[in-house]
Amino acid sequence: MKKFLTALLALMMVMSLAACSGGGQGGGEEKASEIVFWHTLTDHDEEMVQEIVDAFNKEFEGKYHVTQETQPLDGFDGKVYEAVTNGVGPNVVWLYPNTAQEYIEAGLSLDYGKYFSAADYKDRVSPGVYAASTEYEDKGLHAVIATITGSIMFYNKELLEKYNLEIPKTWDDLYAACKTVVDGEKAEGKSIVGFGPDSVDVLAIVTLEQLGLKYINSSKKADDWTNQKFVDWVNFWKKAENEGYFQLVDSEGYHSGPFGNQNYFCYMGSSAGMGYITPNGFTIVTGPVPQVAGGKEYTEITTRALISFTKDEATDAGTAEFVKYFTKPENNLPFCQKYSASTPYKDVEESPVYKEYFDKSIANQALASMLSYAGTRPSVSGERGAREALVAAMKKIIIDNEDPTAALTQAVATANGSLSE
User: Fold this and answer.
1) What pLDDT, in 10s, does the model give residues 274-288?
2) In Å, how far are 88, 114, 156 from 291, measured between CA atoms?
3) pTM attached to this predicted model
4) Domains of the chain from N-terminus onward
């Protein structure tokens, strides 16, 4: 018995010493803070993210560790919100800056201002970009913008030349060009659609603004959606869809694949989509988004940002460190090249490598031609719900053949309910 007690005491002493020294599985050695990054990037963009993540993990080994997880695009905003508000979501996501407002109000958004110096971000971007990162009620830095993109037009150059067409400037011009191409190709026994948009929300929002209306007005209302000017434009689209010249939604989701296979004459999509088009036997040309004849010049610029959520001090500090790392010039430059995006950073923009890339990018050049009249969406809570209501109404009208006024009236009620929460 005495030997047993002696052995037991010795064992307890060894375990105690191990615990004090931090050795072993149960020791006091600090574990690296785990950081989960959610995004919807795929293919070469995802590979670029992984390279950045791997380099970060190597540099901060034992302190921070990032895992990237690609999520489906459909319903991504809602999935993030549900996960984060339930305490099981990611630490950082790739989203639009205005989506941060919902998380600020819920007390879940990470304010990078606690961890960033002016040299890390504010001094590197334009006043407009910084404003888009801080235009929240608390004026905090809740979004770090990494790329600038926006909708542009992609055309089949050979079809433009075959039918002696110029790049359309207005929606009426676009309709006429699509009619010419579709009718001409069908006369030769070829099936083709004229035009389709990748993002129904962008199409509707841009058109509202071009008509002199507001997507969401200064009173935080969506009341302009039922304005007769917009109802008339939606009916114009509906007619073009019924005739086979426009198509709101493609079965593949994005129009880049069908466009590359010559199933479309043209489509409107993000400038970042250039890398996803594989033209099958034709040349791509780009152009600006069509405008409403006699309306206000407008298009929507898209800034993608890193938005983070609070967890604990160590993880929050690591998340901010990862965001700093992700946007360093040596990482932002190759990422923009892979993503076919423009950079928001002056130090990257001044790089000879970036200038050479931009000079060869017909997508970014098309976007640059519209920057003087481009705008962004308002950073207000409930915007996601309003956007979903507008998209649903457009699909009901165009695809389900519902009455435009009735569908938009219901959408306004739903949107205003979301915006008032």
Assistant:
1) 888 989 999 999 999
2) 43, 42, 20
3) 0.79
4) 33-149+302-375 (3.40.190.10), 150-300+378-419 (3.40.190.10)
